[in-house]
């Protein structure tokens, strides 16, 4: 089968050159064009990568149900899964980062001593730029970084950045789920309770409060800090009895499961 360049692949598939290059990021080049120096790819391997990418139309992968917490925990603890993939999943599940924000992280964006990650270009202005990182996520990040002091945080087995397409394919193959199912939806914290349990604003939480999460976990608030993000949004950072934080808008309504004196 003939070899093709990224530009030829783009013309063949009817997509932009930049999209063709992103699709081919996970395909090994077999040679270079002698005249232009462009990388050459096996046409069959290129077509396979193109056909396995997320398709057009209704993006059901973006509206996937949230993965049960117990399943996430099992996957994050599975040493047979590459640690970079598990670090990515942990940042999405525990720290509630979007896939694009995780893949854009550089090793230098994460301060494991302080337990903070800096997201330079969040999708929404209201998103917090400085994101607290739990101890369990930090362990996975440290292993994924493998002593590197710069470069993409999430890489594949060859040290290359992981693309969205590759992340989606791996999640389907290893977890049997959409990559987006790892990230709790914004409404999974503080959705109105079924049996009329009291709701309060996150800013009004007190030490000792226990709150409901729709992932099925009830958590005890250890400390509540008012953190002002660079965007100007004020968030409540809630350290819980479980090993990851909830990061919610101060005005967000949270469901109180238990409060001292009640």
The largest beta-sheet arranges its strands as: 7-13-8-9
- Averaging pLDDT over every residue, what do you get? 76
The gross shape turns out to be elongated
Rg calc: 21 Å
How many helices?
Answer: 8
Q: What ranges have pLDDT less than 50 throughout 5 or more consecutive residues?
A: 57-63, 187-196, 229-233
> H/E order of the elements?
EHHEEHHHHEEEHHEEEEEEE
CA-CA gap between termini: 72 Å
Strand content: 15-25%
Number of strands: 13
What helical percentage do the residues reach? Answer: 25-40%
What characterizes the major β-sheet?
A: 4 strands, antiparallel
Structural class: alpha+beta
Concise summary:
With 262 residues, the protein is of the alpha+beta class. The chain has helices at residues 6-13, 17-23, 43-51, 69-76, 83-93, 99-103, 135-145, 164-175; strands spanning 3-4, 31-32, 39-42, 110-111, 116-118, 130-132, 199-201, 210-212, 218-220, 223-228, 234-239, 246-249, 253-258.
Description of the molecule:
The chain is built from 8 helices and 13 strands. 27% of the residues lie in helices and 18% in strands. A 4-stranded antiparallel β-sheet has the order 7-13-8-9, with no helix packed on it. It has a 3-stranded antiparallel β-sheet with strand order 1-3-2. The model is unreliable at 57-63, 187-196 and 229-233 (pLDDT under 50). It is of the alpha+beta class and 262 residues long.
């Amino acid at each position: 089968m003939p070899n093709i360049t990224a530009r030829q692949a783009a013309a063949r598939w009817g997509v932009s050159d930049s999209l063709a290059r992103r699709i081919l990021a996970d395909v090994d080049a077999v040679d270079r064009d002698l005249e232009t120096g462009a990388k050459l790819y096996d046409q069959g391997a290129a077509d396979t990568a193109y056909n396995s990418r997320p398709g057009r139309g209704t993006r059901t992968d973006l509206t996937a149900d949230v993965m049960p917490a117990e399943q996430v925990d099992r996957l994050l603890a599975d040493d047979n899964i590459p640690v970079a993939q598990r670090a990515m999943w942990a940042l999405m599940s525990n720290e509630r980062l979007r896939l694009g924000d995780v893949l854009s992280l550089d090793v230098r964006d994460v301060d494991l001593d302080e337990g903070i990650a800096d997201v330079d270009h969040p999708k929404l202005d209201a998103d917090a730029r400085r994101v607290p990182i739990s101890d369990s996520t930090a362990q996975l990040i440290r292993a994924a970084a493998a002593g590197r002091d710069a470069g993409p945080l999430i890489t594949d087995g060859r040290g290359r950045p992981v693309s969205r397409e590759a992340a989606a394919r791996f999640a389907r193959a290893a977890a049997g789920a959409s990559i987006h199912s790892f990230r709790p939806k914004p409404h999974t914290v503080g959705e109105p309770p079924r049996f009329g349990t009291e709701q309060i604003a996150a800013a009004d939480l007190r030490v000792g409060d226990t709150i409901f999460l729709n992932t099925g976990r009830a958590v005890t608030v250890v400390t509540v800090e008012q953190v002002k993000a660079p965007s100007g949004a004020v968030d409540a950072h809630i350290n819980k009895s479980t090993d990851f934080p909830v990061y919610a808008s101060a005005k967000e309504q949270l469901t109180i499961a238990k409060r001292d004196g009640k």
